[in-house]
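lol ok so funny story. i was supposed to be doing the assay writeup but got distracted and ended up predicting the structure for this chain instead. priorities right. anyway since i did it might as well share w the group, maybe its usefull for someone
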Amino acid sequence: MYPEEIVIPCREELLDAGIEELRTAEEVEAVLSQKEGTTLVVVNSVCGCAAGGARPAVRMALQHKNRPDRLTTVFAGVDQEATAQARTYMQGYSPSSPAVALFKDGRLVFMMERHDIEGRNPQQISADLTKAFDDHCAKG
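and the output, tada:
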């Protein structure tokens, strides 16, 4: 478990962007068991690639015209049961944090793992996210 003074700003960066934090396995299940619409799940972390890449990129991508219906996050290393439950929906991928998953109609359609984030700037990461949003979240 990380000290709360380290975790708070990491949480707030996503919460301030309108992303709902899921802190229990039950909250994760309630959201990810839905079979209609699109859901973004950001696996948050205190690491440098989350701070310098993932969180800023997610915030940028959410300014795009196409975006998921539901915006959620779990915090790896902090809310362990919620994170473990979210990862049960990310079959075929090793546990990774940070990570960004996109679900459409209850099915995983896009996954960005830590190795897709490390060493890249927020603009590059955001471009991948907005392409996924265009591919899976466009209305009409």
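The chain has a mean pLDDT of 96. The chain is about 45% helix and 20% strand.
back to the writeup now i swear
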